[in-house]
């Protein structure tokens, strides 16, 4: 199963000139660990052109949510495939991890930003990145993870979101 992630779309649009981006988006993305991915995430929202840093953070958190939802969909499809016990156990762990991302971490980050408390958003995005790593690690004894791309995307976008949030601390 192939799922196009923000990370993959960012490499195809990386040649876009920085001059076309709003100055705040460029400055903000330069302060993240994944500049091109940041641009791709923010570029997907028309709101980013006139957004302040708070709104850019909300856009990035929304992108984490979108990728986590893709992960959940991929897990559901893989679970229908009747994998072996080890893979089934790894998928169960991933399902729990992404439930935590969607039900806890993303909500915590969104609420923190909406209520003007970016520390909660910082913690939520740190936890989301950790949950993606946890899912990937669940496949360590099984072989290659079928969720590698989406886990990497959630992890990296959560790092971008966290870096944007840290501008608000």
From TrEMBL:
Stored Gene3D superfamilies: Invertase/pectin methylesterase inhibitor family protein
GO molecular function terms noted in the UniProt entry: enzyme inhibitor activity
Keywords of the record: Disulfide bond, Signal
Organism superkingdom: Eukaryota
Pfam families found in the cross-reference section: PMEI
InterPro entries reported for this sequence: C/VIF1 (IPR034087), Invertase/methylesterase_inhib (IPR035513), Pectinesterase_inhib_dom (IPR006501)
Region (Disordered): 1-23
Domain Pectinesterase inhibitor: 20-164
Protein family per UniProt: Belongs to the PMEI family.
PANTHER family: OS01G0111000 PROTEIN (PTHR35357:SF8), OS02G0537100 PROTEIN (PTHR35357)
Protein name per Swiss-Prot or TrEMBL: Pectinesterase inhibitor domain-containing protein
Organism, as annotated: Sesamum latifolium
